[in-house]
Specification:
The chain is of the alpha+beta class. 30% of the residues lie in helices and 18% in strands. Among the domains are: 2-122 and 241-343, no CATH class; 397-472, Nucleic acid-binding proteins (OB fold (Dihydrolipoamide Acetyltransferase, E2P), Beta Barrel), CATH 2.40.50.140. It has 13 helices and 17 strands. The strands form 6 sheets. A 5-stranded antiparallel β-sheet has the order 15-14-13-16-17, with no helix packed on it. It is globular and about 75 Å long.
Length: 472
């Protein structure tokens, strides 16, 4: 009986499943098991993943149908749609790496359809974080404030600016928590008193409402110190973020690789060095150029002030475009994955005419240099249903070479145009100007799209070098 069951199971495992959805081929029918002993394969992991990449015509039609269904629903409730637009992945996109899988790197597939998707909860988390950064850290928050984040995204008693340092909190985390708390203390003074009072009215206990009604600013200062008071606030927020179904460029998924060389350092007590053996780790991604339809729905929240209603249109467009450009969606965003843009922003070859695309030698510098502004965010376009490429909001300041000027240095924000190679990369400043930068760390491998800060040295008003100072 046992032999019969084993043979039948083996036939199931070894059967052709090419017709199945990517989700089934990645999960239930994953062709990465040793059929003799039913253990994950030790080699050929990449080939096993490739068998889960292809999308059959039926699966492409299914994705298109899901998107069209969302579009039809959105158009039927147009008055409740706060923002809707189609964006394109400027680099690889991956989500669900933490899900269980024999190869230890999962991927999010929509059950029972087996097609890739980005959960609406994940979209909300990214956009909320972007709204908090606009409210707390941007010199010009574009109308965003702490209270408006709460009214639109909900009150979270465990927000970063409410957390406190514990005994075992690493110093770097403690410094970051202190930075968020300091920003919160400075930002609450810009909150609208009417919006604060409306939040206080949500407290269930009349004694608490009477105590804090006329002391709105003190109420906001008390929240980080009083956990019990935070727990009394129940505010869901008026925005709903729909699931996103990407239309995959090329009609198939891709296999990407992480290749750590220092396992003996990360998992042991030996120092890192070039003698370490690489450990290639393969995982699924959605290729660059895939399209993503985002839909944000608004709902009525009891007690919400009229100022929030008036702010939703422009505010949501601002924070969505900020999220696409600077935050990224899905996993591995710190390495440039998940950045989004309009179709016109899809990456193109950065090679000069007659120069190979993979040539990373320095390019000829321009004789003029435009100093990018220190802060730059997408401007409100007026219509929040059709996001477009970000325009230049001000004319760049052009510095002409002047030998009488002394050498100067300044730190600026930039984005990698090329991947880091031999400690060098091509960078683009916030106003679009490019130059080469050096002294990037050789590990981990950093692809294009990663944000960083560089120290730019000018001589006679002309830039002569840019040195890497840190990733953002």
């Amino acid at each position: 009986m046992t032999t019969m069951a084993y043979n039948e199971l083996r036939q199931v495992v070894e059967a052709d499943r090419s017709y199945a959805s990517p989700g089934l081929r990645f999960g239930l029918y994953f062709d990465g098991w040793n059929p003799a002993v039913f253990t994950p394969v030790k080699t050929d992991k990449k080939e096993a993943l490739k068998k889960a990449c292809a999308l059959q015509a039926a699966h492409k039609d299914l994705i298109h149908s899901l998107i069209e269904r969302q579009r039809g629903i959105a158009e039927s409730i147009q008055s409740r749609i706060a923002w809707r637009g189609t964006m394109f992945s400027l680099g690889p996109f991956v989500t669900g790496l933490g899900l269980e899988h024999p190869l230890e790197n999962g991927f999010s597939f929509l059950s029972p359809y087996g097609v890739p998707y980005l959960p609406g909860s994940a979209v909300k988390g990214v956009v909320r974080r972007a709204a908090e950064e606009l409210a707390l850290f941007e010199p010009d928050p574009d109308g965003w404030s702490v209270t408006r984040v709460w009214w639109l995204f909900g009150f979270d008693e465990n927000s970063a600016f409410f957390k406190k340092k514990e005994k075992d909190t690493p110093d770097v985390i403690a410094q970051e928590l202190a930075r968020w708390r300091s920003a919160y203390d400075a930002a609450i003074s810009a909150c609208d008193p009417v919006e604060i009072e409306a939040i206080i009215r949500l407290l269930p206990d009349s004694k608490d409402r009477d105590e804090w009604r006329s002391r709105g600013l003190e109420f906001l200062r008390e929240l980080p110190e009083n956990r019990e008071l935070r727990r009394k606030l129940h505010l869901v927020g008026s925005l709903r973020f729909w699931d996103v179904y990407p239309e995959i460029a090329g009609g198939k998924l891709s296999v990407d690789i992480m290749n750590p060389h220092f396992n003996h350092y990360y998992q042991g007590d030996r120092p890192p060095g070039d003698w370490g053996s690489p450990n290639p780790i393969f995982f699924l991604t959605i290729p660059a150029g895939s399209s993503f339809q985002f839909v944000v729905e608004r709902s009525e929240t009891a007690g919400m002030p009229s100022s929030i209603h008036d702010f939703i249109g422009a505010g949501i467009e601002q924070v969505m475009l900020f999220s696409f450009k600077w935050m990224g969606f899905g996993a591995k965003t710190s390495l440039g994955y998940g950045l989004m843009g309009s179709e016109s922003e899809l990456p193109k070859s950065t090679a000069q005419p007659g120069k190979p695309a993979n040539d990373t030698t320095p390019q000829v510098q321009k004789k003029e240099f435009s100093v990018p502004p220190q802060t730059h965010k997408p401007a409100h376009k007026g219509s929040y249903h059709q996001p477009t490429a970000e325009p230049q909001t001000s004319k760049p300041i052009v510095i002409q070479a002047d030998s009488s000027l002394p050498d100067e240095t300044q730190r600026l924000k930039a984005v990698l145009v090329t991947a880091v190679a031999n400690g060098k990369a091509r960078i683009k400043f916030e106003n679009g100007d490019e130059m080469d930068a050096s002294k990037f760390p050789p590990y981990p491998l950093t692809p294009a799209g990663r944000r960083c800060t560089v120290e730019v040295t000018t001589r006679g008003g002309k830039p002569i070098k840019a040195i890497f100072k840190g990733f953002i």
